[in-house]
Design brief:
The complex is a heterodimer of chains A (about 300) and B (about 240). Chain A has about 300 residues and is mainly α. Chain A has 11 helices and 4 strands. The chains are: A mainly alpha (about 300), B alpha/beta (about 240). The interface between A and B is medium-sized, with 21 and 29 residues. Bound molecules: adenosine-5'-triphosphate and magnesium ion (MG).
């Protein structure tokens, strides 16, 4: 029981990180109809900007952890957004309207480019960070297995829930969110009612990048070490989460992320750690066979 | 004063040219109808006035300003609204959200008043305001598409086949609303219709398009009596 609960906690925390990245995939796909394969690299850049900001704060002597975390959070969200914005502006916008294959190849190219860019600037070695948040709450002490909910996991879960609630309200309640949904449903018609489609797409990349940067920060805090290659596997898993949840659906991305995190945690705990990535992808294949629109995806056409 | 002036417009898709030099003019306060066979290029004309597909040659003026090269959103922000072919309401949004989308170019303080006006024209939309637009009937979707266009307080309203696929009673209702917004709200209307009989009776003037060109124009009643038009578009077609 205790062991099961522990895996549940670990899986949730991990799944929240995937979910945050997956939102970026799903929103961009929903509006532009392309898979932004460089999104995993945006997450990786978010993690690098976080570690650099931590080091700078250490140098200037900001020692109070909550303040340091807040500064890092804001810095990485802002700076990573700039990368997301520039990526769309430079690489994808000129290709809008050209065949999907061209956009796909460009996305893969940008992914390779960004990896090399970070490798060149930061070196290929692992970047470690001393634990920033330590300790945790213990439950079921004295039972056969003591469950720990670390303060870091609490933070990850709370921040992610906060971001997702805020983000969902933004999509459902604000004029910007309405414009994004309109673009998703009919790009040409959205322009025809007066929406600046280019601007809306830019903002979508900015939002996706800032959520991914938070995931990058959490990944850094959770694992304590990053390198220029972390965007690949995390990106593929988050993409899997987006497809699992139903690509184009924001709640689907969150759900898919949580499921992938849980599958990974439970698989590692009860079966073999080596095959944990395979498990996630196997589930994806099953979903695609039996429910191709994903769990919360909408069918392509509706009576119009 | 002319609200819309299209001169020698050429436009198309890829290698296909759909419009081969179209000239059209719509004056303030008019209802102008455009009729023509399937594939003549009517929808292409309405869409390319809004910048998509873009004019390859020629010039489009709106309220005296050259809008030929402006992006779509900038064109409609100048006071032009379109209810396009196929209605193209946002299916996963509610009726109210669709109407809000129509109002993205206007001041917030007009919103309640404009909404009230649309609900007065189409009371059924008030009842359905929280319903997902994709679940509306065809006639209701058409009303929503026109209502959405009206929410932007347009100076010029472009309507692409508003009566398509509707029962006769609804067709009459749609046309009487068009007359009302023209007379009471002083909206200039340029409409494309298959239903030539109704359209030419409603309109002050009309154009006939064939194969991407304007082949005939004149007063609505005059066109109604024209022998060729009777043969091509009206016989048995009421
Ligand atoms: N998206 C498109 N891509 C390629 N060709 C198109 C496209 N839309 C229209 N066409 C072509 O352009 C020509 C004009 O079409 P358009 O839709 O403007 O005609 P229309 O007069 O509106 O016809 P209808 O009465 O059937 O609506 C046709 O030959 C059509 O096949
Ligand atoms: Mg048409």
């Amino acid at each position: 029981m205790g062991y099961f609960l522990q895996q549940l906690i670990n899986g949730l925390a991990l799944g929240m990180i995937y979910g945050l990245i997956a939102i970026g995939y799903t929103m961009v796909y929903g509006i532009v109809g392309m898979i932004n394969f460089a999104h995993g690299e945006i997450f990786m850049i978010g993690a690098f900007i976080s570690i650099i900001t931590f080091l700078v704060l250490g140098l200037v002597g900001v020692g109070w952890v909550p303040l340091a975390l807040l500064i890092v959070l804001v810095a990485t969200m802002l700076l990573t957004s700039v990368y997301g914005w520039a990526l769309e502006r430079v690489a994808y916008r000129p290709l809008r309207g050209s065949p999907r294959l061209a956009a796909l190849i460009t996305a893969i190219g940008m992914s390779i480019f960004l990896q090399n860019y970070v490798q060149l600037l930061q070196g290929a070695r692992n970047k470690p960070l001393q634990p920033v948040i330590t300790g945790g709450a213990r439950f079921l002490e004295g039972g056969d297995f003591t469950v720990t909910l670390s303060y870091l996991q609490m933070l990850i879960i709370l921040v992610t829930i906060g971001l997702m609630v805020g983000f969902t309200m933004l999509i459902n309640r604000t004029a910007l969110g309405r414009a994004q949904r309109a673009c998703q449903q009919d790009l040409g018609m959205a322009a025809l009612v007066g929406i600046d489609v280019d601007r809306t797409i830019s903002l979508t990349f900015v939002m996706g990048a800032s959520l991914a940067s938070v995931a990058g920060l959490m990944f850094l805090l959770n694992y304590g070490v990053i390198d220029f290659y972390i965007g690949f596997l995390a990106g593929v898993k988050a993409f899997t989460a987006a497809v699992l949840g139903g690509i184009g659906s924001v709640p689907g991305a969150m759900l898919g992320g949580l499921l992938i995190g849980l599958i990974e945690a439970f698989w590692s705990a009860y079966f073999t750690v080596e095959y944990k990535d395979v498990a996630a992808f196997a589930i994806l294949v099953l979903v695609l066979i039996f429910r191709p629109t994903g769990l919360l995806g909408k069918p392509e056409v509706e009576k119009v | 004063m002319s609200v819309l002036r299209v001169e020698n417009l050429h436009a198309g898709y890829g290698h296909i040219e759909a419009l081969h030099g179209v000239d059209v003019e719509v004056a303030e306060g008019e209802i102008v109808a455009l009729i023509g066979a399937n594939g003549a290029g009517k929808s292409t004309l309405l869409m390319s006035i809004c910048g998509n597909p873009r004019a390859r040659q020629g010039r489009i003026e709106f309220l005296g300003e050259d809008i030929t090269r402006l992006p779509t959103h900038a064109i409609v922000r100048r006071g032009l609204a379109q209810s396009p072919e196929g209605r193209r309401i946002f299916p996963f949004m509610t009726v109210l959200e669709n109407l809000q989308m129509g109002a993205v170019t206007t001041q917030v303080q007009h919103f309640d008043e404009d909404l009230e006006r649309v609900f007065t024209l189409y009371p059924i939309l008030r009842e359905r305001r929280q319903q997902r637009a994709g679940t509306l009937s065809g006639g209701e979707q058409q009303m929503l598409a026109i209502g959405r266009a009206l929410m932007s307080r347009p100076r010029l309203l472009l309507l692409d086949e508003p009566s398509l696929g509707l029962a006769p009673l609804l067709v009459r209702q749609i046309f009487s609303v068009i007359r009302e917004i023209n007379e009471r709200d002083r909206v200039t209307v340029f409409l494309v219709e298959q239903n030539a009989y109704h359209a030419l009776r409603l309109a002050h003037r009309g154009y006939v398009m064939a194969n991407g060109k304007i082949v005939l124009s004149g007063e609505g009643r005059e066109l109604l009596e024209n022998e060729e038009i009777r043969k091509a578009y009206l016989e048995g077609g009421r």
